[in-house]
Write a structure and sequence with these properties.
The chain has 382 residues and is mainly alpha-helical. It has 15 helices and 4 strands.
Length: 382
């Protein structure tokens, strides 16, 4: 079946048009926000503007070395959030026009402030510790830095469900009943001990449907949006749970954490080498790597490396999600309901089931809805 024929069979012309319209309304602001963040990082990191910012922020708190590190870090975080804010607001406005937003502007602002506080709470002590390490061992700081970055990645993955997720959502165990029994039986059949199935109060922000698995070891749990429970059929919810069980079965969170830790450990010596390059330090207006005025340069280099690795990260994520889809099909043997579930997700989330291929390759963390439906049909036929 061709993509055009499949689109006609699975989605109405109106549903396809809505998905494309929302993508076109949000995409310029999503890309614009990312571009603005990179341009800001480059402008501060590769010119003397960033050094001046660090010096000015440090002078507000006494001008000491620690004041420059902390003041400069805070200034970078706040400026970055400020630049991203109008783009995020426009994305939210576009989503609201299509009925995806249930939260008021006041709640949105509180979430933005809370996110900024979390960023400051993480970045400031990390920057202070990093520059203390560089000052202590200017030539070999990257050895301990790489180990610390790997350990920090593991710690954050472990703590995220316990500390950070509850800051933005409330979670309750899935109530006793037929659905909970069915999900636990599904997990038992899959040979997986599920510690908990939690329901997130996503409806106070959005009408979108979603589920995910987070944490590992004692913090591992499967989370479903309350919007999914009130919208989807029980069998479709089972298919969503089967997909999430696939992540657990293949230890995707643990594997992702380990790979993330290894990636962090590899990036640190690369950053150290670049941070020691004299032409970059001169352009940034910093005397040396341990000079707090090199902070914007370090942030710019990290941002550029992150942006360059994004397509590879997305490709790995799509493969993991496709594997979880296959697991759901093999566990349930129900391609028909899997297709119904994917169709519901596309329609409820006003997604474009057939986005431009280049866009999917560069930015998508999940296969498109149309591709997931086609894969389910291929699995059924095979």
């Amino acid at each position: 079946m061709t993509e055009t024929a499949s689109a006609g069979a699975d989605f109405t012309a109106e549903e396809l048009a809505r998905g494309r319209a929302l993508r076109r309304a949000r995409l310029p602001w999503l890309l614009g926000g990312q571009a603005a963040a990179l341009l800001l990082a480059a402008a501060l990191g590769f010119t003397g503007a960033g050094a001046g910012l660090v010096s000015a922020a440090g002078d507000l708190f006494g001008g000491s070395w620690a004041a420059r590190v902390l003041g400069g870090s805070a200034a970078l975080v706040l400026l970055g959030r400020l630049v991203a804010l109008p783009f995020s607001a426009r994305v939210r406005t576009a989503s609201a026009r299509f009925g995806l937003v249930t939260q008021g502007w006041a709640g949105w602002a509180v979430d933005a402030l809370r996110g900024t506080a979390v960023a400051l709470g993480l970045f400031l002590p990390l920057a202070l510790g990093l520059y203390a390490l560089i000052g202590r061992s200017p030539e070999h700081w990257w050895v301990a830095g790489a180990a610390a970055a790997a350990l920090l990645t593991v710690a954050l993955s472990f703590l995220h469900p316990l500390v950070f997720e509850p800051m933005f959502n409330r979670f309750e165990p899935l109530p006793e009943g037929e659905l909970r029994t069915a999900l636990l039986e599904l997990a038992d059949r899959d040979g997986i001990a599920v510690r908990d199935v939690l329901v997130a109060d996503a409806s106070r922000r959005t009408t979108a449907l979603n589920a995910y698995v987070s944490g590992f070891g004692p913090t591992r749990r499967i989370v479903v949006y309350d919007t999914l429970l009130t919208t989807a059929e029980p069998r479709e919810i089972e298919l969503v749970a089967a997909h999430e069980l696939g992540h657990v079965k293949h230890r995707d969170v643990l594997t992702g954490t380990v790979l993330g830790a290894l990636g962090a450990a590899v990036v640190v010596p690369v950053l150290a080498a670049l941070l020691a390059w004299r032409p970059l330090l001169d352009a940034a207006g910093a005397a040396s790597a341990q000079d707090p005025r090199s902070l914007p340069l370090l942030a710019a280099l990290a941002a550029l490396l992150g942006a360059a690795s994004l397509p590879a990260q997305c490709a790995a994520s799509r493969r993991i999600e496709a594997r979880a889809d296959r697991h759901a099909l093999e566990l349930t043997g129900d391609a028909e309901q899997f297709i119904a579930m994917q169709r519901r997700l596309v329609v409820a989330n006003v997604a474009d089931p057939y986005p431009p291929r280049a866009l999917e390759l560069l930015l998508a963390t999940h296969p498109s809805g149309g591709r997931r439906i086609a894969a389910a049909r291929a699995w059924s036929a095979g």
